[in-house]
Specification:
With 392 residues, the protein is an alpha/beta fold. Helices cover 48% and strands 10% of the residues. Strands 2, 3, 4, 5 and 6 form a five-stranded mixed β-sheet that branches. Helix 1 runs antiparallel to helix 3. The protein is globular. The N and C termini lie far apart (75 Å).
Length: 392
């Protein structure tokens, strides 16, 4: 499971539900090994803990209907402690900068001398402590665990050591004593948005800085059929215009955010393709199947990476697009899956009436009806007149 911010997690949830519905003899909560990177670490940790894709859809997408709802506000809490810590450095930095400039005004420019004020800038905008508390509670519930060593299956959550730029697979020997919730935070600490996470005196940031998928972690563990989900791909404006028979829109019209998004996606996707090609040579007896949005998918590209308010629509979009990809690639994928005893349910895949909302809505209504029936039965029992004792 690769990363991509909240948008990436939303796409992956929709894709996971689609796969879970149509793959037979392949249980997504009973895989031999899970690997999560960045926002994908949330979902990999959930699957390894027995949370089904539908359950995570209710938690993260249909949150108001879940027993353990994820509140979107947790992602947007300002990092006040980090702000205060950095602000406390400002007086000394100002003094030092002024002294530096006054001692050699001709040798150094004003900007050069005062550049050290950048040390007062926060290392992250948002505070992730609320996310840590939520995940700790989630993984500490009955039947789950916050301990890598107590999981039924192997779980690896990859983060980047900030000081060495090396990838660290939490969950591997020597790294498995870290709580799972803490490892998720480290793997998903996107620089600039969330402060680095300190673990054992070291600081860790987003695992995608080194690799996009880190699929080799699972392959080295002996995985023979590996499903990879990557939510971020560069956009092809020409293909999108041709697909919709419309005018080609230049990405430059979207300004700096769109240009940066395309640049970032192109870099990580190119790096991922290089890695995928290498896996074929290094692990010739393994089948690696990749699912990702099509390059002409404007819906996924132009969605705000941190727009959590449209999560239901975007998850439904990912769900339907993944089903469409499975239909389109059926002839390619079925022989691959069959080598591992897995089949694609053609009947379920052909059912055009399936939606995320309908299925979850039916589940919620059934659960609500069951709770109501139980309550009414108890009420009836309480109100029923007790039998009179027999006379005599």
């Amino acid at each position: 499971m690769a990363g991509g911010g909240p948008l990436g997690a939303i796409y992956e949830i929709g894709a996971l539900v689609a796969l879970d519905e149509v793959l037979r003899d392949f249980d997504l909560v009973d895989c031999g090994v899970y690997v999560g990177v960045s926002s994908g670490s949330f979902l990999a940790a959930g699957l390894a803990n027995g949370l089904t894709p539908r359950a995570m859809h209710q938690m993260f997408i249909e949150s108001e209907a879940a027993d353990d709802p994820f509140e979107p506000e947790l992602l947007m809490r300002p990092a006040l402690m980090e702000y205060a810590r950095r602000l406390a450095l400002l007086p000394q930095l100002l003094k030092s900068s002024a002294q530096d400039y006054l001692m050699s005004p001709r040798a150094r420019s004003l900007v050069e001398s005062y550049w050290q004020l950048a040390h007062a800038l926060p290392t992250g905008i948002f505070d992730n402590s609320g996310i840590a508390e939520y995940l700790t509670d989630l993984f500490s519930a009955r039947g789950r665990t916050n301990d890598f060593r107590k999981l039924r299956h192997k779980l690896f959550l990859v983060a980047t050591d900030l000081d060495s730029a090396e990838a660290v697979p939490f969950g591997a020997p020597g790294w498995d004593d870290v709580p799972i919730a803490q490892a998720v935070l480290a793997s998903a600490a996107l620089p600039g948005l969330f402060p680095p996470v300190e673990i054992g005196g070291r600081h860790y940031v987003d695992g995608a800085l080194v690799k996009t998928l880190h699929a080799s972690v699972a392959l080295r563990e002996g995985a023979k059929l590996l499903l990879c989900i990557n939510p971020l791909v560069p956009f092809n404006a020409d293909a999108a215009a041709q697909h919709k028979h419309g005018r080609r829109v230049s990405l430059v019209e979207g300004g700096l955010p769109t240009v940066l998004s395309q640049t970032f996606r192109a870099i990580i996707h190119s790096r991922m393709q290089t890695g995928m090609a290498r896996y074929g040579h290094e692990f010739p007896d393994a089948d690696v199947v990749l699912f990702e949005p099509r390059p002409d998918d404007a819906e996924m590209f132009f969605a705000n990476v941190f727009n959590y308010s449209e999560r239901k629509r975007l998850a439904e979009h990912a769900y339907q697009r993944t089903r469409a990809e499975l239909r389109r690639r059926y002839a390619e994928l079925q022989p691959i899956f069959s080598r591992h005893g897995v089949t694609i349910d053609e009947v379920a895949l052909a059912d055009q009436t399936r939606t995320l909302a309908t299925r979850d809505g039916a589940t919620r209504r059934a659960a609500s009806t069951g709770r109501l029936d139980h309550t009414l039965d108890r009420l009836e029992a309480l109100l029923r007149p007790r039998a009179e004792p027999a006379s005599g």
